[in-house]
């Protein structure tokens, strides 16, 4: 029997590699687009008859989805973040969930964070917009700051945060602080980073860059109160998840001139359109969640997802399972 594989809301999976042909040996591959806000029940019926799902950052795979859909045996996230997947519900329903290992996207996201940091530090986008609009003579307004000797605060010193720290300290000679309640001072010190509490990091950093996952603990970690602790004229970079930042608080801070610049690859609600309050400012740069968008990273993602699907199709346990406990219960099998 040939299985069915749904690639949901991802235009990039398989677009730059031969992975679709490889997967066609496992089953029929279908690209499916659904509204971002689709309900779990509707999503469940849209994916009826599919055994494998390649899951992007949206829509949400909630408990209702897992309870209502009885066909999917593997949900393979073609990325790192799992915040749109109710992993507990997947486990309870016997669905295996995989993701790609951190190293596949590490370099891509870390380098974009540095690109955004430099854009913000030197007002690259704002200056370019001035040139496009015939305001070359305004160049005197674009006085920047150098990363060398500046203090950069990293919130979340994991896979990506560590690489950002390394580039900043070894490449630019910046002083790097980090806030991460789940790692030890020694682990941070071993890569030249000083671990601090959140308040110290916010008070001392010229640039704050976010690399923590979105959890109940980190949601709106950047809010009215924490922005007030940040240095006047500092920079906020977010390549993690939009929900880490309270957008209203950020808009107010930009309005008040508290922050020099905000540089965001991710925004609350997943995307912004013209007319969004964030886009009224000159001192902001927003990229459309392209952190992992490099040829190298896509190659690694496609490989990992294909391996996971092939393994499950052969009745084997795939690598990078995020809910290994599913195998202790009634894991769904292909039948
Ligand atoms: P990771 O799990 O290796 O690192 C996250 C770190 O955050 C860990 O060290 C963890 O201890 C820390 N952390 C957890 N809770 C925290 C808290 N309350 N305060 C401070 N730190 C906390 O993950 P990673 O691979 O480095 O990825 C980081 C995040 O980047 C992901 O969760 C994902 O949301 C995001 N991401 C974005 C893109 C993009 O396209 N922009 C691509 C990949 C990943």
Structural commentary:
The protein has two domains: 3-99 and 294-328, 3-Layer(aba) Sandwich (Rossmann fold), CATH 3.40.50; 103-286, Rossmann fold (3-Layer(aba) Sandwich), CATH 3.40.50.720. The strands form two sheets. It has a seven-stranded parallel β-sheet with strand order 8-7-6-9-10-11-12, sandwiched between helices. The chain has a five-stranded parallel β-sheet with strand order 2-1-3-4-5. The protein is built from twelve helices and twelve strands. Helix 5 crosses helix 7 and helix 5 packs antiparallel against helix 12 (295-313). The model has no long low-confidence stretch (mean pLDDT 97). It is of the alpha/beta class. The chain has helices at residues 19-23, 40-46, 63-68, 87-92, 102-122, 124-132, 159-172, 185-189, 198-204, 224-229, 247-255, 295-313; strands at 3-8, 27-32, 52-55, 74-77, 96-98, 151-155, 175-179, 194-195, 207-210, 234-238, 259-264, 284-286. Helix content is 34%, strand content 16%. It starts with a strand and ends in a 22-residue tail after the last helix. The chain binds nicotinamide-adenine-dinucleotide. Nicotinamide-adenine-dinucleotide binds next to helix 5 and helix 7.
């Amino acid at each position: 029997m040939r299985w069915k594989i749904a690639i949901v809301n991802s235009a990039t999976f398989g677009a730059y590699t031969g992975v679709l042909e490889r997967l066609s040996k496992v089953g029929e591959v279908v690209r499916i687009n659904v509204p971002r806000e689709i309900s779990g029940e509707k999503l469940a019926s849209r994916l009826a008859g599919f055994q494998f799902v390649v899951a992007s950052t949206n829509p949400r795979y909630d408990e209702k989805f897992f309870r209502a859909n009885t066909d999917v045996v593997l949900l393979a996230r073609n990325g790192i973040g799992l915040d749109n997947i109710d992993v507990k519900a997947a486990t309870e329903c016997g669905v295996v969930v995989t993701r790609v290992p951190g190293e596949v996207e590490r370099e891509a996201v870390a380098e974009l964070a540095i690109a955004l940091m430099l854009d913000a530090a030197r007002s690259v986008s704002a200056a370019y917009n001035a040139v496009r609009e015939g305001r070359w003579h305004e160049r005197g307004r674009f006085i920047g700051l150098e990363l060398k000797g500046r203090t950069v605060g990293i919130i979340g010193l994991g896979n990506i945060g560590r690489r950002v720290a390394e580039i900043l300290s070894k490449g630019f000679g910046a002083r790097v602080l980090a806030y991460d309640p789940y790692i030890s001072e020694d682990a941070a010190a071993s890569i030249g980073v000083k671990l601090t509490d959140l308040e110290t990091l916010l008070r001392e950093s010229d640039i704050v860059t976010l690399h923590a996952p979105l959890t109940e603990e980190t949601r709106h970690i950047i809010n009215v109160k924490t922005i007030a602790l940040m240095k006047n004229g500092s920079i906020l970079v977010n390549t993690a998840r939009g929900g880490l930042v309270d957008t209203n608080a950020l808009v107010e801070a930009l309005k008040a001139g508290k922050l020099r610049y905000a540089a965001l690859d991710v925004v609350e609600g997943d995307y912004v359109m013209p007319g969004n309050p964030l886009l009224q400012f000159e001192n902001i740069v927003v990229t459309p969640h392209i952190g992992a968008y490099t040829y190298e990273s896509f190659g690694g993602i496609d490989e990992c997802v294909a391996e996971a699907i092939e393994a499950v199709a052969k009745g084997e346990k795939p690598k990078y399972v995020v809910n290994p406990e599913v195998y202790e219960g009634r894991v769904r099998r292909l039948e």
